[in-house]
Amino acid sequence: MTDPKTDALRSALEAYELEPEDLALLEPGASATPEATRSVGTLAIVGRPNVGKSTLVNRILGQRAAVVQDQPGVTRDRVSYPAQWAGADFTVVDTGGWEIDTGGLAARVAAQAEVAIELADAAVLVVDATVGVTDTDERLAQVLRKAGKPIVLAANKVDGPGLEPEAAALWSIGLGEPYPVSSLHGRGVGDLLDAAVAALRARPRPDGAEVLGDGPQVRRVALIGRPNVGKSSLLNKLAGAERSVVDPLAGTTRDPVDELIRLDGRVWRFVDTAGIRRRVNRIQGADFYASLRTQGAIERAEVVVALIDSSLDLAEQDVRILQMASDAGRALVIALNKWDLMDSERRFYLERSIEQDLAPWSWAPRVNLSALTGRRVDRLAGALDLALAGWERRIPTGQLNSFLGQLVAAKPHPLRSGKQPRILFATQASARPPRFVLFTTGFLEAPYRRFIERSLRESFDFAGTPIQISVRVRSKRPRSRA
Predict the structure, then answer these.
(1) Measuring CA to CA, how many Å separate 103 from each of 77, 100, 261, 380?
(2) What distance in Å separates the CA atoms of residue 464 and residue 365, rounded to the nearest whole number?
(3) Could you tell me if 407 and 455 are in contact, meaning their C-beta atoms sit under 8 angstroms apart?
(4) Which fold has domain 4-30+394-473?
(5) What does pLDDT average to over the chain?
(6) Does pTM surpass 0.90?
(7) How many helices (H) and strands (E) would you count in the chain?
(8) How confident is the model at residue 105 (pLDDT cuts 50, 70, 90)?
(9) From 3.10.450.710, 3.20.20.300, 3.40.50.1240, 3.40.50.300, which CATH number describes the 42-202 domain?
(10) pLDDT at position 207
């Protein structure tokens, strides 16, 4: 059923010159949601440092998803990616290098690899065929046997037929046939994947086990912030386990780490990201590629939680991170971490600093929490719901034009060169984020557009979402002469 007032406003546009894309905006659109596919299981890629695990993961995925650099220890967390081979959908998990009797950060990286083995349905043990079987390879093979999971042995760095005898020597590790592959060039990876998918299909699944899977109701949440602000600690607290490697060393996280988490009775997919550094153009190597992965995680997310260290002064870096989230058009929640370290005087000055420096994002819900102790973390779900509701909100065209008509009548655009631009018609072109297109007789200056945006927020509760306003100036058609 159409609105007569909307039809009248739309018909008034017939006197103006409109482009084909203008007419398309005036027609109702439709969207389709792709059906979810069922995974055959999870495949963990494990091995000692610098044997080519992340390179193999990228080869399986057909893209540079995992951070790769020619030095050991680049990958630190267990990172999951959706993959497909021969009509089978599965999850491939990249892990950090496993080492014997390590301490500190290396021990935590090895522990994450062992967790990946425990949670996987099958594993691929990657061994450097040019080096042969080392003591670390043999110890890791023992860990895999104890886990009782199907194991496929990949003899990596076999770049040509002349190196295949080195691959055959890996029979000595006692894990069956070694598959000679070159992760860098793709040689033999197809045969390896055939064996891995067959192992996934053959593994029996336990009955009655709860499976947290992606579906239309699973929302993607990206955790962003500068290095060492507490993103990994927050993910671990939400997951109730050591999901991300946490270390006092800034920049521990390099690959985005996904985890399905049940929060407030629903399943969310949280993504821990690498810390965004001050000058991206000056970093190099693994940190540079980590920053690119962080930007990609923001663009794939629906809502972003920007963490700010409340124990430190607000920095230009924090402002730039918030700007990245709003420029990407994502719903936004601001989380002030380490709130338990604040005294009353520090809170007073922080509030004043927030009001001044974060004024452009005053529309974002704010949660004061402590990722370390878990204080007020439970309030995060409500803030996420509020931001997503605003991000997806739509205003009927008739209601929008009625609102703008009253708004312009109460406060019209200032005269410029003796002319006053008028809003002929307005429509919400899309949601997620809300984008409005205004057809006008003249250009609307930035202060007046901000006035319209602020009024839309106050009247229609667009909390937690950026609003995009486009102005299309259209002139009248020339009168035809009889």
Answers:
(1) 16, 9, 29, 34
(2) 6
(3) yes
(4) GMP Synthetase; Chain A, domain 3 (3.30.300)
(5) 82
(6) no
(7) 14, 15
(8) low
(9) 3.40.50.300
(10) 46
